[in-house]
């Protein structure tokens, strides 16, 4: 059997991640038993204190074992932990050497949603791929520049370390792990029983782009404001550089440092976000939306839109337009 350690951190933790994982892995055991196969998961809630109160004051989680009791585990699950991520690390410092040692001894480690911040704090993600909730992508990049963040991905898997994207995408990572450990047949049964869309691989359609302005470079903020207020026009890097009295090279360097996007990427993301809003709420066709957000080449628009959202403009409109959905 595989020993599974679902961590119960101090702070405000996603109880959905904890209970959902416990329920789904327990159901895998039940299904295997009904098929006269041996159950595979030995599931434990592992904490650093006998009673772990949530900082919301609403719930208390009681781990059934403490990390000092677990000498060997096979899979560590890190749920999302909300709040100031530096304080999260401080409050749960005792987990870190234990996670590192278990990984060195062969355990695999999975984080859900913003649990990737705590996983990255162990150093185990250094030089590796990771994802997280798209809302916190820039914050993650700033805190952990040595991690390869793929914020459009539902999940990542590398060297026995797994991460999932925003919120309920943890279900897709669970399905991946279930398929890995028990086979495709059991994963399909679980996907149907819990109505989880198997093989989903991108959180791009769910990303709502909001200009990254959590920085102190006032000139770059002016460039961002200009792009956001004039997305319906053709905007060039040289034009912005002239407006700010900067060299093109200086603008591009400072823009990338401040926003984690190149100037061109930022322009495209602002335009596509405006296009998404039109496709969601208006009756305009794709070409009308394209012209409205400042594109003249339909092929270029479609390629850019799909690269950013994971869907073609028509697919996006059919999926999210309220009137069509109704």
State the distance separating the first and last CA atoms.
47 Å
Fraction of residues in helix:
40-55%
Q: How large a portion of the residues is in β-strands, by DSSP E?
A: 5-15%
Query: Helix count?
Result: 15
- What is the number of domains? 2
CATH level 1 class label of the largest domain: Alpha Beta
Query: CATH homologous superfamily name of the largest domain?
Result: Class I glutamine amidotransferase (GATase) domain
Mean pLDDT: 92
Q: How does the helix and strand content classify structurally?
A: alpha/beta
Number of strands: 13
Strand order of the largest sheet: 6-3-1-7-9-13-12
CATH topology of the largest domain: Rossmann fold
What kind of oligomer do you see?
single chain
Please give a structural write-up.
The protein has 326 residues and is an alpha/beta fold. It folds into 2 domains: 205 residues, 3-Layer(aba) Sandwich (Rossmann fold); 108 residues, Arc Repressor Mutant, subunit A (Orthogonal Bundle). It contains 15 helices and 13 strands. Helix 1 packs parallel to helix 6, helix 6 runs antiparallel to helix 7 and helix 9 crosses helix 10. The relative contact order is 0.08.
């Amino acid at each position: 059997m595989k020993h599974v350690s679902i961590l119960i951190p101090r702070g405000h933790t996603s109880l959905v991640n904890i209970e959902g994982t416990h329920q789904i892995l327990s159901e895998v055991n039940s299904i295997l038993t009904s098929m006269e196969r041996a159950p595979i998961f030995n599931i434990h809630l592992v904490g650093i204190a006998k009673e772990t109160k949530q900082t919301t004051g609403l719930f208390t989680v009681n781990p059934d074992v403490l990390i000092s009791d677990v000498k060997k585990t096979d899979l560590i699950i890190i749920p999302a932990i909300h709040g100031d991520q530096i304080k999260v690390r401080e409050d749960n410092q005792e987990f870190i050497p234990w996670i590192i040692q278990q990984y060195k001894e062969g355990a695999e480690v999975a984080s859900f949603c913003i649990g990737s911040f705590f996983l990255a704090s162990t150093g185990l993600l250094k030089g590796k791929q990771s994802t997280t909730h798209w809302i916190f992508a820039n914050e993650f990049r700033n805190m952990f520049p040595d991690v390869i963040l793929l914020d459009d991905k539902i999940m990542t898997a590398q060297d026995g370390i797994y991460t999932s994207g925003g919120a309920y995408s943890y279900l897709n990572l669970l399905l991946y792990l279930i398929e890995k450990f028990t086979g495709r047949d059991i994963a399909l049964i679980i996907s149907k029983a819990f109505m989880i869309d198997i093989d989903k691989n991108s959180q791009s359609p769910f990303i709502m782009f909001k200009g990254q302005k959590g920085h102190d470079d006032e000139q770059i903020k002016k460039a961002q404001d200009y792009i956001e207020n004039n997305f319906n026009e053709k905007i060039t890097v040289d034009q912005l550089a002239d407006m700010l009295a900067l060299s093109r090279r200086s603008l591009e360097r400072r823009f990338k440092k401040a926003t984690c996007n190149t100037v061109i990427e930022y322009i495209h993301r602002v335009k596509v976000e405006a296009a998404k809003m039109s496709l969601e709420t208006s009756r305009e066709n794709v070409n009308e939306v394209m012209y409205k957000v400042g594109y003249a080449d339909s092929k270029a628009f479609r390629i850019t839109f799909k690269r950013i959202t994971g869907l073609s403009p028509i697919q996006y409109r059919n999926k999210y337009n309220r009137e069509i959905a109704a």
